[in-house]
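Quick one:
INPUT:
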């Protein structure tokens, strides 16, 4: 397997040697292809068929600033248009947690396997780099697929669907106390959101949007009418897997940073909300704007109830619950007819799972 390293300093021998040592690739010098002109990256991917991993440095002659879009993100966006499945990792010398926090949505949207601080000598970082390389080798090189294949835009129109929201909650309990914990929390959520997006795709859903500390996904049926039980059950299974994943990662974070968390205060946690029903999926193509709009009661319901209480890691609505076959097996229980739900003007209730 070949590894493509994209950095504006990649032509400098000392930088290349540093990268090889950092990634434990010194004995695989011939497998690493350095490229320092961004316009040549796609050409190399097209011409070298066995590239299985792309490592992109984020800052190309840029200083770290809140709100800026690093050139490396633009490179990743271009790669993903032609190569939606190739494994991508990023590295940078960005040290400010608020700058990294602003990039998490791009890491998740474009499925970045991991982000590394350039030159990090820690054993933990070395292990993560080794895992990224090993997973890329196991997966093999990826060929491009048609642009838009399997995208949510292909389902434009009136559909029956499920909106699935995962949100990071409770982190303000420590946010102002430790920059190190901020950075670590951003890494935890980046990994959780990335893996949750993969879980949703595995069960037939689509990543819709990452906005700040919220991941929104959508499951869509081919038509409004008919039996939607299979789609509903797939979404619930994805939610349970995401709940378990988030619980594992967040519990580890909370234990490590327990001194920063006030007793009795809400601890950081992951919350999930889902609802099914009629959706309007609308593809937008206006000048430079290409996006997808999803509207309907499931979207509004899920946004309003997510994070209702740490006691209920998964909340579902009436529309999704009634599509589940053998409902007794799911052990759902009524939580409340919350005021936020009543304001929707619908006869809706909020349920959770007993386990």
């Amino acid at each position: 397997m070949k590894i493509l390293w994209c950095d504006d300093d990649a032509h400098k021998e000392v930088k290349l040697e540093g990268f090889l040592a950092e990634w434990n690739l010194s004995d695989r010098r011939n497998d690493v292809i350095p490229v320092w002109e961004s316009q040549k990256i796609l050409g190399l991917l097209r011409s070298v068929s066995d590239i299985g991993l792309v490592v992109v440095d984020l800052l190309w002659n840029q200083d770290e600033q809140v709100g800026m879009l690093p050139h490396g993100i633009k490179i990743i966006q271009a790669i993903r248009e032609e190569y939606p499945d190739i494994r991508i990792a990023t590295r940078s010398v960005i040290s400010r947690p608020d700058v990294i926090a602003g990039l998490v949505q791009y890491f998740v949207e474009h499925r970045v396997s991991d982000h590394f601080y350039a030159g990090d000598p820690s054993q933990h970082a070395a292990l993560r780099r080794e895992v990224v390389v090993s997973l890329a080798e196991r997966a093999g090189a990826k060929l491009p697929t048609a642009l838009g294949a399997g995208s949510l835009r292909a389902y434009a129109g009136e559909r029956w669907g499920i909106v699935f929201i995962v949100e990071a909650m409770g982190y303000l309990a420590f946010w102002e106390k430790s920059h190190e914990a901020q950075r670590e929390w951003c890494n935890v959520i980046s990994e959780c959101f990335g893996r949750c997006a993969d879980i949703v795709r595995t069960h037939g859903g689509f990543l819709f949007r990452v906005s700040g500390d919220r991941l929104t996904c959508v499951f869509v049926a081919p038509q409004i009418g008919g039996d939607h039980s299979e789609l509903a059950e797939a979404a619930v299974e994805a939610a349970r897997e995401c709940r378990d994943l988030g619980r594992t990662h967040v519990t580890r974070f909370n234990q490590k940073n327990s001194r920063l968390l006030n007793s009795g205060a809400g601890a950081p946690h992951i919350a999930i909300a889902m609802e099914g029903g009629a959706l309007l999926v609308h593809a937008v193509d206006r000048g430079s704007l290409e996006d997808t709009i999803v509207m309907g009661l499931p979207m509004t319901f899920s946004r309003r109830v997510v994070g209702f209480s740490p006691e209920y890691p998964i909340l579902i609505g009436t529309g999704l619950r009634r599509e589940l076959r053998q409902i007794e097996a799911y052990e759902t229980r009524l939580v409340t007819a919350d005021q936020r739900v009543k304001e929707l003007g619908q006869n809706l209730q909020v349920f959770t799972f007993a386990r």
